[in-house]
Structure formats: C-alpha cells, structure tokens
Design goal:
By secondary structure, the protein is mainly α. The protein has a domain of 95 residues. The radius of gyration is 17 Å and the shape is globular.
C-alpha cells in the first residue's frame, strides 16, 4: 500500500475525533460528494479519467459515513464504539480503493488533506469547549 503508515495514523485520528463526544451528537459536517470531488480534483490534480474512476468510491464513502454518524447514540459507549469500528473499516476500504486509481504523490496529497481537516475539527472542538467553560481554566492554577 502507498503511504500506509501515514494514512493509518490519519484515519485513526479522524475516527477518534468523529466518535469522541459522550454527551451530545458531534457536529461533524460531512461534505457532499460534489464538494469532496471538487476539492479532490483541485488538490490532487486529478485527470478527468481519475475523477470518473473515484466518483463512485467517494459517493459510497460519504453515504456510508452519513449512515454511521446517524446510527450511534451519544452517551452510549457501545454504540459509539460500534460506529468507530464501522468508520475505521470504511476509511480503510476507501483508502484501498482510492490507491488503485491515484499515484503515490496524489495519495500523499490526500493524506495531507485529511490531516488538515482533522486539525480544523480539533480546533473547532477546542473552541467549542472553551466557549462552554467561558474560557476559564478550572483547577488550582497559580
């Protein structure tokens, strides 16, 4: 597999963030297939042939991610763990399928894109948490 260790780390981080809320359903925005394909075409410099080849992969990935995100119950650890495993398996399938049509450089660019999206999600979650606590830290600081 191409760039397997990096992809593994990125996929794991994505899944951990997606399933980390324990009190309420996480507000994770899954892009539409059209949005995702537009991004991939420009970020990965996809040829028309590649775009045609990966379109069904991306459409299936996004449809399944939406189902998984809608299926688990916030606060139910078992449900969240099941969703996490499903997301993990889906991410592996998607990466495997994409690697059949993308070059090593394109897979690396895809990994970079996933990392950027993960960083943005983490920053958004951190900001939300900061807003809920009023920006003040709890505890016995100096």
């Amino acid at each position: 597999m191409k760039s397997l260790p990096l992809i593994t780390i990125l996929a794991t981080m994505l899944l951990l963030t997606a399933c980390s809320s324990h009190q309420q359903r996480p507000e994770i925005k899954i892009p539409t297939p059209e949005q995702r394909l537009y991004t991939l075409k420009h970020r990965l410099n996809l040829s028309d042939e590649q775009l045609e080849q990966i379109t069904p992969i991306i459409e299936a990935d996004i449809a399944e991610k939406s189902k998984i995100m809608d299926s688990f119950e916030p606060g139910d650890r078992e449900s969240m763990q099941t969703a996490k495993k499903k997301m993990e398996n889906l991410e592996w399938e998607t990466l495997r399928d994409l690697s059949d049509h993308l070059s090593d450089a394109q897979m690396e660019a895809y990994s970079d894109l996933l990392k950027e999206e993960e960083d943005a999600r983490k920053a958004q979650m951190k900001e939300r948490r900061r807003g809920k606590s009023g920006g003040k830290r709890r505890g016995g600081g100096f």
